[in-house]
Specification:
Helix content is 42%, strand content 15%. With 262 residues, it is an alpha/beta fold. It has one domain (8-245): Rossmann fold. Residues 7-200 form the Ketoreductase domain.
Length: 262
């Protein structure tokens, strides 16, 4: 914590979507927040909005797929905010291309961002927290796609599955430093037809997913925030290596099958 008792929280993918909502939530708590995103204009505007509300927030531009960019970003955050207490690794991109048609560039774009990017962020966060010597919280956002295949989601599912095991390894290796590493697995959050994430999402696609969810609807960012907030809290000091699903029961079973009354 800083001298005034506030924590320094870094959120990746913070220019929009879940990442932006997470940054808003921690800023509202009184934490000092670093918003990291590859889109300079988007993240600068997001941070400026928070500063306008009286929050202590800074914008940092970086491409998580580039280790040098990530290293420079973390150095900038520590230089501007003094330390790092919490890191929420949220950045991710998706695709919907059959493997037979998958170009190498598309595979590398998704895996490079989701898996390599998580590694770069997790490593940089852990190194800073170990240097500080007083523990920390790391939370990675994963997906049900890591455990349930979808046609066209080869690189996305593979990268999220790899991300989950990476976090578990980190949990073991960082325990001695009292750094917790946990995972939150949201249900489908409709980002709309957003570049890099939801070009393939149509109203029909979202409705088809909603039909498989016992709760009867897809997730919102507000559904996901409490899980991330808890896993990054002081109260979760003995929780590490955990995966918390926030998906309305979507991962519990095959809800879309008709009821068998026989």
């Amino acid at each position: 914590m800083t001298a005034d008792g506030a924590r320094v929280v870094l959120v990746t993918g913070a220019g929009a979507g879940i990442g932006r909502a997470v940054a808003d939530r921690f800023a509202a708590r009184g934490d000092r927040v670093a918003l990291l995103d590859v889109d300079a204009g988007r993240v600068t505007a997001a941070a400026a909005e928070l500063v306008g509300t009286g929050a202590d927030a800074v914008a940092v531009t970086a491409d998580v797929a580039d280790p040098a960019s990530v290293s420079a970003a973390f150095d900038e955050v520590v230089a501007r905010l003094g330390r790092l207490d919490v890191c929420v690794s949220n950045v991710g991109v998706a695709s919907s291309t059959p493997l037979l048609d998958m170009p190498d560039t598309e595979w590398r774009r998704v895996v490079g961002t989701n898996l390599d990017g998580t590694f770069h962020v997790l490593r940089a966060a852990a190194r800073q927290m170990v240097r500080q010597g007083d523990g920390g919280r790391i939370c990675c956002v994963t997906s049900f796609a890591a455990r349930s295949a979808r046609r066209g989601a080869g690189p996305y599912s593979a990268s999220k599955a790899g991300l989950e095991m990476l976090a578990r390894v980190a949990c073991l290796e960082l325990a001695e430093h009292r750094i917790t590493v946990n995972l939150v697995s949201p249900g489908f959050v409709d980002h709309g037809r957003r570049a890099g994430m939801g070009e393939f999402v149509t109203p029909e696609y979202a409705a088809a997913i909603a039909a498989t969810i016992p709760w009867g609807r897809t997730a919102t960012t507000a559904d996901v925030l409490p899980a991330i907030e808890f896993l990054c809290s002081a109260e979760a000091g003995y929780v590490t290596g955990a995966l918390l699903s926030v998906d309305g029961g979507g991962s519990a079973g095959r809800f879309a099958l008709p009821r068998n009354n026989g």
